């Protein structure tokens, strides 16, 4: 193991004095917590305004520019969505919202710098945020280039819809607003049970736990998604096929997912009581991300948790005394997010996505490899961390004044982190082009996606401070430069005509020239600045 791996194996440790969740018999005895600083109301207002703006842009723009399996509409909003649905397609609300997501993350970082949030749990750490955003990029590429062509999301649903709904005249009218609103609500009901079972059943948790693996809680965490969860998720939405056409289901499912982005923040405290009672809010979802709790499973609405006994209010979990105190406070005081232990009990051992996405399958695989009994294998596969907690009454023990929380970070030199971040921005831009380039050859888009995944893997090893990572990254840069120069010289000698024609397009040729220059410079940096890709001096000294 690398030094970084050994360091990460010690991360996220919480002293026993922090305590575990108590069962219902102690639920009436609420621990008391004093919040040193209140987040100003104007910050919540800014966040919510940006959220509403994101929804409006996505709702208006998607039918005009981002659609699936149909021609783009000349109308935006609901009329455009209906127009696209009549052609057999659906608006891609998630794709349309991606630029807004990135802008909101930038805004949250700026607001945190202005406000100086006292909670370490909500702050941004480059390696952690990079890991979350990388997971989001790869998950979208896998969904678009693998799950979609395999018809995993649509084929079973469409077959059931045609066999029952169309045959017996049960399908609701596609041009009625109430049809779309009802589909949105029922999508959230289906998501509630998908989400709850993903915490209670271990082989489902193995996929979903990727989303919980960050020990920070901010908007980037919302994009930290599993590659595997999309395989099982469509099964939970099949009952909707009895009433709703496939385009309506697909569109409203995406709208439901978009609605969950904003709840991953520590900058919005409590909203007015009616909102907190009906909607899933940041307050409710912070409780959900506590690794000891496994409650509050709704996506857009919290009412399903209230109905099915899995609700826990943030102020019931930890009784809060609010006051205008100084940021330093007195010894022993803790901000609210430091009571909620974000993350998972199993510590990630690498920043590479390959490890993050697969590590939670290891207990199940290990049980199979050891030849365990059927009982042990069944327990490893079925008994998830939320199996005994989802429906129980719980409260949380406040961490003691002397307890500490060590959060994972990368010991890579700051120069190396800047290098990784700069290349990540390029990867995001190229990945977005792959997502929206529907007319491009699937083979070319898939090859580009695989290369992006390999690039992100190399950068994860850099963040791990792996001893061979710099050489591997240098080889990647040089191979790409040689490949791009060959493509620029004569693409027809390397590819079939349909792909060669893509590389003859002026924007693509400009992109190839730009990437060639960037990677030549990157190769020079890797050769001349070895110190930038090693551990920081402070970390070496501490060891």
UniProtKB/TrEMBL annotation:
Chain intervals for the UniProt region annotation (Disordered): 1-27
Principal subcellular localization: membrane
Keyword match Cytoplasm: no
Pfam families to which the protein is assigned, alphabetical: FA_hydroxylase
Regions crossing the membrane: 42-67, 88-115, 418-436, 442-459, 471-488, 508-533
Topology of this chain in the membrane: Multi-pass membrane protein
Residues spanning the signal sequence: none
MF GO annotations: glyceryl-ether monooxygenase activity; iron ion binding
Compartments where located: Endomembrane system
A GO biological process held by the record: membrane lipid metabolic process
Keywords on record: Lipid metabolism, Membrane, Oxidoreductase, Transmembrane, Transmembrane helix
Record domain Fatty acid hydroxylase: where: 180-310
Gene Ontology terms: cellular component: endoplasmic reticulum; membrane
Protein name: Fatty acid hydroxylase domain-containing protein
Taxonomic source organism: Hemiselmis andersenii (Cryptophyte alga)
């Amino acid at each position: 193991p690398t030094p970084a791996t050994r360091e990460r194996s010690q991360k996220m440790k919480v002293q026993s004095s922090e305590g575990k969740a108590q069962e219902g018999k102690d639920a009436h005895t609420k621990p008391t917590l004093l919040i040193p600083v209140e987040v100003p109301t104007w910050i919540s207002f800014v966040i919510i305004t940006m959220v509403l703006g994101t929804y409006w842009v996505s709702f208006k723009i998607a039918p005009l520019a981002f659609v699936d399996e149909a021609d783009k509409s000349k109308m935006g909003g609901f009329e455009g969505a209906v127009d696209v649905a009549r052609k057999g397609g659906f608006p891609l609300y998630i794709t349309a919202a991606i630029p807004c997501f990135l802008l909101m993350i930038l805004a949250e970082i700026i607001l945190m710098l202005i406000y100086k949030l006292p909670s370490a749990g909500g702050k941004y750490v480059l390696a952690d945020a990079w890991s979350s955003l990388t997971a989001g990029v790869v998950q979208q590429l896998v969904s678009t280039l693998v799950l979609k062509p395999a018809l995993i999301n649509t084929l079973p649903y469409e077959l059931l819809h045609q066999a029952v709904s169309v045959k017996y005249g049960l399908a609701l009218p596609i041009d009625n607003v109430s049809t779309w609103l009802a589909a949105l609500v029922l999508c959230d009901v289906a998501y509630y049970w998908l989400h709850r079972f993903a915490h209670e059943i271990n082989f489902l948790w193995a996929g979903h736990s990727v989303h919980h693996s960050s020990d920070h809680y901010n908007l980037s965490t919302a994009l930290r998604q599993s590659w595997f969860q999309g395989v099982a998720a469509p099964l939970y939405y099949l009952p909707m096929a009895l009433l709703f056409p496939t385009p309506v289901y697909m569109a409203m499912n995406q709208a439901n997912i978009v609605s969950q982005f904003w709840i991953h923040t520590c900058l919005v405290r409590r909203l007015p009581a009616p909102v907190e009672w009906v909607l899933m809010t940041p307050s409710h979802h912070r409780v959900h991300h506590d690794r000891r709790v496994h409650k509050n499973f709704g996506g857009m609405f919290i009412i399903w948790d209230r109905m099915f006994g899995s609700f826990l209010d943030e102020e019931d979990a930890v009784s809060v005394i609010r006051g205008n105190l100084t940021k330093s406070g007195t010894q022993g005081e803790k901000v609210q997010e430091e009571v909620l232990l974000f993350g998972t009990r199993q510590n990630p051992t690498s920043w590479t996505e390959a490890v993050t996405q697969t590590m939670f399958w290891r207990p199940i695989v290990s049980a199979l490899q050891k030849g365990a009994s059927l009982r042990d294998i069944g327990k490893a596969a079925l008994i998830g961390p939320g199996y005994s907690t989802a429906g129980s009454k719980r409260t949380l023990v406040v961490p003691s004044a002397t307890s500490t929380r060590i959060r994972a970070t990368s010991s890579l030199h700051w120069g190396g982190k800047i290098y990784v971040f700069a290349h990540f921005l390029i990867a995001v831009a190229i990945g977005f082009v792959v997502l929206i380039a529907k007319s491009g050859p699937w083979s070319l888009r898939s090859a580009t996606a695989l290369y992006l995944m390999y690039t992100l893997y190399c950068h994860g090893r850099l963040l791990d401070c792996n001893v061979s990572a710099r050489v591997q990254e240098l080889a990647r840069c040089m191979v790409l430069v040689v490949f791009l120069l060959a493509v620029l010289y004569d693409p027809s000698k390397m590819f079939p005509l349909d792909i060669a024609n893509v590389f003859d397009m002026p924007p693509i040729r400009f992109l190839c020239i730009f990437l060639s220059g960037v990677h030549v410079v990157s190769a020079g940096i890797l050769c001349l600045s070895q110190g930038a890709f090693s551990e920081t001096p402070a970390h070496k000294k501490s060891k």
